[in-house]
Amino acid sequence: MCPIAVMPEGREVTVSRIAGGGEFSRRLSELGLVPGARVQVVQNGGGPILLRVGDARFALGQGMAQKVFVD
C-alpha cells in the first residue's frame, strides 16, 4: 500500500484507504474515490495528478494525492 502520488502514468490501481478527515473523505467519495474503487493514473508529472474513475477524469493536488493509499 502506497500513496497514489507515487504511481506512474498508465497504472491502474485499487483505492485501499483514504487518510483524511470527514470533509476530505466526503469530497473524495463524491468524486468516486472510495476504498475498492479502480482508478487509472492518466498523468503524473510532479504537479497535480490526473486520474480516471469510470468515465470521469479529475485532478488531485499532490497534498491530497499523498492521502489516498492504493494497492
How is this structure best summarized?
The protein is an alpha+beta fold and 71 residues long. The chain has helices spanning 22-30, 62-65; strands at 2-3, 12-18, 38-43, 49-53, 56-60, 68-70.
CATH topology: SH3 type barrels
Note the beta-strand portion.
35-45%
The secondary-structure class comes to alpha+beta
Q: Strands of the biggest beta sheet: in what spatial order?
A: 1-6-2-3-4-5
- The CATH homologous superfamily is called Ferrous iron transport protein A (FeoA)
Structure notes:
This protein is of the alpha+beta class and 71 residues long. The chain has a single domain, classed as Roll (SH3 type barrels), CATH 2.30.30. Helices cover 18% and strands 39% of the residues. It is built from two helices and six strands; from the N terminus they run E-E-H-E-E-E-H-E. It has helices at residues 22-30, 62-65, and strands at residues 2-3, 12-18, 38-43, 49-53, 56-60, 68-70. A six-stranded antiparallel sheet has the order 1-6-2-3-4-5. The longest helix has 9 residues, at 22-30. The termini are close together.
